[in-house]
Design brief:
The chain is of the alpha/beta class. It has helices at residues 19-22, 33-38, 60-70, 81-84, 93-108, 158-174, 187-196, 207-231, 253-271, 281-293, 300-303, 308-312, 368-382, 409-427, 470-481, and strands at residues 12-16, 74-78, 112-118, 180-185, 236-240, 246-248, 318-322, 327-330, 349-350, 387-391, 432-438, 457-460, 465-468. The strands form three sheets. The chain has an eight-stranded parallel β-barrel, surrounded by five helices. A three-stranded mixed β-sheet has the order 6-8-9, covered by helices on one side. A two-stranded antiparallel sheet has the order 12-13. The structure holds beta-D-fucopyranose.
Length: 495
């Protein structure tokens, strides 16, 4: 068998979901920042909430049946933080019982759990935490809901301890059967959308303070990893950063510098400290300049305290790679402080790809070669012990057609090309151990509500019915053969 046509027999084949996006039954959970956020006028496209979602909480057996039909050996799901710690501090045994039973059921079916501790549904109670960086000022509104004042949640260092308590509760209950853990999901997205732009919960829009939230979020990873390794030194622990490879729009030194700068903001800021390199100096200088320009009463040294970088470093046993698309960047004019003079926040412009490129239904460029580049880069720059693709998938809105099926051939093409990209990276040495497709089923896509569909199963929200898409049939063939099938599932012609 040639190295670049098939996956090894022990490859982790899985799908990914998160609690708030699929579970529903928010009446049985504590208030989460997403419950609060979804009530705010304008926050969610179409006005959706997590109240019902895909009704997975009430019917976990249906999800398990899907996992079996897909033939996956791994399931990445998250435990609802606000469900387990309704008041932010005290574990709810009934919620732990639910996940306890679920993990048992996965075990009975021979499916390995890969558990995310924080996939964004933080208890709203933790928004009352306070810290020295708080302000009463509402942030600048970018889109959607009116921002709330920048205080609470990850802006407070006390959130780190609260997250460690949640981790203790979950690992104490599930740690005898769960070995692979994701502490924090997508630090950059939480920092950017949750605290800088206010378009995700908790809806804070404060550029300078977003770096505070991002740092505490990374300290949360360190603290949770210590809890997990303390309970089980062999536990496999990582984060799932949203990694966007950054490419220059042209080959000029200016555009190349812009791409490298953006890489510092999006990727290196969260990867370097995990791998013992500390926060990257170039991006540190940019953040310091941003804080000065914003005239906030603190500097980066007040936020990143002595010992903090050590508390984040060398705890990752794998990198969970969430990959959807890339960024293409161009230079912008800058002043003596290194910041742009044209009103932008950072010294680069996201210009996107030139020309007619393949795109998903939300115009994100489909660029599998960037995944190969990314995996090789993680292998080379971080000597990543293990790489697991923890999210990757296609946003395509195909619905049921004449034959009652969903012929989502664009999602199949997306999977086909991205799986090939992984084989290419493996052939060049990258240690990629697994692939978790986002997502098992269509679900609540955060601020975009229920419009975007990423699932291998179609979920009809009006009737709560599910349909296996052609991409699911294709993926089941992948998991069965460890190969990329040469042909797509057949379609019976209409008429
Ligand atoms: C990622 C999130 C995941 C889902 C996908 C499409 O940013 O982690 O919950 O929304 O994007």
């Amino acid at each position: 068998m040639s190295a670049n046509t098939s996956f090894p027999p022990d490859f982790l084949w899985g799908v990914a979901t998160s609690a708030y996006q699929i579970e529903g039954r928010r009446d049985l959970a504590g208030e989460s920042i997403w419950d609060e956020f979804t009530r705010r006028p304008g926050a969610i496209e179409g006005g959706g909430t997590g109240a019902r979602a895909c009704e997975s909480f009430d019917n976990p057996e249906r999800d398990i049946a899907h996992l079996k039909e897909l033939g996956v050996n791994t399931y990445r799901f998250s435990v609802g933080w606000s469900r387990i710690m309704p008041d932010g501090h005290t574990p709810n045994q009934a919620a732990l019982d639910h996940y306890d039973r679920f993990v048992d059921r996965l075990g009975e079916e021979g499916i390995t759990p890969l558990v995310t501790l924080n996939h964004w549904d933080m208890p709203e109670a933790l928004m009352s935490l306070r810290g020295p960086f708080d302000t009463d000022e509402p942030g600048r509104q970018v889109a959607g809901a009116k921002p709330r004042p920048a205080r609470g949640g990850w802006l407070s260092r006390d959130c780190v301890g609260a997250f460690a308590k949640h981790t203790e509760a979950v690992a104490g209950r599930l740690g005898d059967r769960v070995n692979t853990w994701v502490t924090q999901c997508e630090p950059w997205v939480v920092q950017l959308l949750g605290y800088q732009l206010g378009i995700h919960a908790p809806g804070i829009a404060d550029l300078a303070r977003s770096v505070v939230a991002g740092h505490h979020f990374m300290l949360g990873h360190g603290a949770a990893a210590d809890v997990l390794h303390g309970l089980n030194p062999n536990a496999q622990v990582g984060t799932t950063p949203s990694l966007y490879p950054c490419y220059p729009a042209t080959d000029t030194p200016e555009d190349r510098a812009a791409a490298w700068g953006s890489d510092g903001y999006v990727n290196r800021w969260f990867l370097d400290p995990q791998f013992g390199k500390g926060y990257p100096a170039d991006m540190r200088a940019i953040w310091e300049a941003v804080l000065r320009r914003q005239s906030v009463p603190f500097a980066l040294d007040d936020v990143i305290l002595p010992g903090d970088e050590d508390a984040i470093a060398h705890r990752a046993d794998f990198i969970g790679v969430n990959f959807y698309t890339r960024r293409v960047l161009a230079a912008v004019p800058t002043g003596p402080d290194g910041l742009p003079t044209d009103g932008r926040d950072f010294p680069w412009a996201v210009v996107g790809p030139q020309g007619d490129v393949s795109r998903n239904d939300d115009s994100w460029e489909v660029v599998p070669s960037a995944l190969t580049d990314l995996l090789l880069r993680l292998h080379n720059d971080y000597n990543a012990p293990r790489l697991i693709i923890t999210e990757n998938g296609g946003l395509y809105g195909d619905g049921l057609t004449h034959d009652g099926r969903v012929h989502d051939n664009r999602r199949i093409a997306y999977l086909r090309t991205h799986l090939q990209a992984i084989l290419d990276a493996r052939a060049q040495g990258a240690r990629v151990d697994g692939y978790m497709c986002w997502s098992l089923l269509d679900n609540f896509e955060w601020a975009m509500g229920y419009r975007p569909r990423f699932g291998l199963y179609h979920h009809d929200y009006a009737t709560n019915t599910r349909t296996l898409k052609d991409s699911g049939i294709f993926y089941a063939e992948v998991t069965r053969t460890n190969k990329i099938p040469p042909t797509d599932p057949p379609i019976t012609p209409y008429g």
